[in-house]
Amino acid sequence: MRWTAAFIPTLRDDPADAEAASHKLLVRAGFIRQLAAGTYSLLPLGQRVARKIEAILRSEIEKIGGQEFTLPALHPAELWKQSGRWDAIDATMFRLKDRHGADACLGMTHEEVFTTLAKELRSHRQLPQTWFQFQTKFRDEERPKSGLLRVREFVMQDSYSFDKDQAGLDRSFQNHFDAYRKIYERCGIETIAVQASSGAMGGSESVEFMVETDAGEDWVAACAACGYAANVEKAMSLLPEITDPESAGAPLKFATPGVRTIDDLASMSGGAPAERQIKTLVYVLDGATTLVLLRGDHQLVLQKLIDGTGAREVRAAHAAEIRAALGAGAGSLGAVGVSGVRVIADAALQGRRCMTTGANADDFHMRGVDVARDIAVAEWLDLRLVSEGEPCPMCEAKLAVRKTVEVGHIFKLGTRYSEKLGASVQAEDGKNIPIIMGSYGIGVGRLMAAIVERKHDANGIQWPVNVAPFEVAVTVLNPKEVATQEAGERLYEALVKLGVDTILDDRDERPGVKFKDAELIGIPVRVTVGPKGLASGKLEVFFRGSGEKREVDLHKAADFVSEAVFEGRR
Predict the structure, then answer these.
(1) Residue 201 pLDDT exceeds 60
(2) Which CATH superfamily is domain 470-569 in?
(3) pTM
(4) CA 330 from chain center: how many Å?
(5) Please, which pLDDT band fits residue 197 given cuts at 50, 70 and 90?
(6) Residue 536 phi, psi (nearest 5)
(7) Bond from prior residue into 15 cis (ω within 30 degrees of 0)
(8) Which CATH number is 48-221+404-453 given?
(9) Could you tell me if 394 and 195 are in contact, meaning their C-beta atoms sit under 8 angstroms apart?
(10) CATH class of the region 252-381
């Protein structure tokens, strides 16, 4: 490729609305352009990177037996109704009606469609199977942002495993785990594999692969000592044991005029520190008003409540609903003596005595509360948000909590979809058994952006060789000088013949402009061909990642550069 024939619209300034480094650089370097909020065009450089990422994904999934499909992005509603997800999924799903009035949607994911195809499997002897595709997904994100990190339309490599038993699913899951590790390694980034919530996908277990970045929206708790790691939606930690005084008798109601928050009560005379308070939240779970209790200094993780209860519809109760159920407004709520309303409590409150909570009367609280004696807890769950420095649940070392972005997610689905959609095979004993499934996905654009988040500096992107739009730029400093131009052409042709993905910068521009563009775009190796170097039989080779410069003999340059590139591909 010659630069003069390429469409590479680099920009001098960052886009005004960009905050994430990857968003700024992918726009400035001419990889992407925004069409609307959350929808982006991949320009030729972006497409080249995407194709290389897809090639890595395809290679590693095929190594574990994957067979490639292409499935429709437009799905009939009936499939999603059969699986139970049509009503379970919120406004994130793009829904539409065709000209005949039939409901349809744009696929967020493809479990339903792949399961329908799996109905053609008849015998356990046909299992295991691993099927995959590259397909566009659509999700109506409420707040798309950060360029390719959170969008409404994106290409995903999603794969699905089909097994006859749990042991087979375990093997398929591990195969994908190992393949994903290899994919990220070949893409040049380190990931953290964390326990995660399965959310709307369902299933018994899931693992997210996370990349640490300030542009991320997920928080991960990780232990450097033992390797424990989990999304905060799933993470647990140990808490120091607290010795409470013995209960002195029935709880005592006392006036707290104007007190509406945990901090208000902690700061008032005769109040209680946050760790000795019971926080009472009111939620509506599948239409039923529910009290959710936590220690005053702890925060609720809503996903833990959803996962722990299995509720499909969860929302905070309205003020009128709260008053109707408890007789008071927010800030004076408690669960002491409450009956007829489900009470769910965080495990950190088990066995606690002499606690303080709302009295269910405006401007009043109660002290001396013994949780076991005074509150009818229906269910104990881990509900609280893990904090930095708390003890690891595995080894008790301190946990670190870091901001990350998810670049892959793998699920053990079990029989959730196969049972509902009727995908079964005949077992060895002649009985029909539901196929046991797994689901696995990597977003191509998000992975591209995550690489940039980890691989950039003040001058631009630093692509790893395996995914760079071009591996080498041959930069001709004075293309109007015949000898220089011809030397650049010969080197370019030699590198292409050796299998190196090369661009010839033959533009009539100042050297500084050419160097800055190559660094902004992130081409791993730049070879400078100029009159001075040619006069001494030398060329300058610049390595973008390390910043190293080497002078190489003209006649050895092609071999030297190709060897460096091939080494970087490993």
Answers:
(1) no
(2) Anticodon-binding domain (3.40.50.800)
(3) 0.90
(4) 34
(5) confident
(6) -105, 5
(7) no
(8) 3.30.930.10
(9) no
(10) alpha beta
